[in-house]
Amino acid sequence: MKNLVEPSVVSNYLLCECRERGEILTNLKLQKLLFYAQAWHLALKNTSLFEEDFQAWVHGPVLPSQYQRFKDFKWRAIDVEIDKPELPEDLRDFLDEIIDTFGTETAISLELMTHREKPWKEARGNLPPDEASNAIITKQIMTDFYKALSKSQVY
């Protein structure tokens, strides 16, 4: 895997860019934006954005390192001071498109979206909805599902 970005860099960009647009991120919403950034990067660019795997938690896909980083905010807005990272133009444009597409949705709406999609559902298997899980959502299932979804879209 080449040109991988640290998840914290992507988180920092999403947090700063959303703030500039007047969107406040909670940990739940940040997790879903990170998930869709990784998923669509895999589907459209055939490469991972970052190496770390998402886990199929009760409230949807979670990137453990970034959850831990912001867990003290619980359900509240992440309001820590962060400098916006300098990113290559193509990555910045890609992340801006993720924000354009998913950033105005509520955290709960994004959670429900991920719950209806194959990657999270398959990773959780037959677990009850409220049972904890650290099951990995594989990059392969993310790639296959979102690539197929992108080809089914009519423009």
Please describe what this structure looks like:
- The protein has helices at 7-20, 27-45, 64-70, 89-102, 107-116, 118-124, 139-152; strands spanning 54-57, 60-62, 136-137.
- Helix content is 55%, strand content 6%.
- It has one domain (7-152).
- Helix 2 (27-45) packs across helix 4 and helix 2 packs across helix 7 (139-152).
- The chain has a three-stranded antiparallel sheet with strand order 2-1-3.
- The chain is mostly helical.
- It has seven helices and three strands; from the N terminus they run ααββααααβα.
Q: Give the assembly state of these chains.
A: single chain
Overall geometry comes to globular
Query: How can the largest sheet be summarized?
Result: 3 strands, antiparallel
What string gives the helices and strands in order?
HHEEHHHHEH
Q: How many domain regions?
A: 1
Count the beta strands. 3
Which key terms come to mind for this protein?
155 residues; mainly alpha; three-stranded antiparallel β-sheet; 3 strands; 55% helix; 6% strand
Q: Which helices and strands, and how do they pair?
A:
Layout: H1 7-20, H2 27-45, E1 54-57, E2 60-62, H3 64-70, H4 89-102, H5 107-116, H6 118-124, E3 136-137, H7 139-152
Antiparallel strand pairs: 1-2, 1-3
Brief summary of the model shown:
The protein is built from 7 helices and 3 strands.
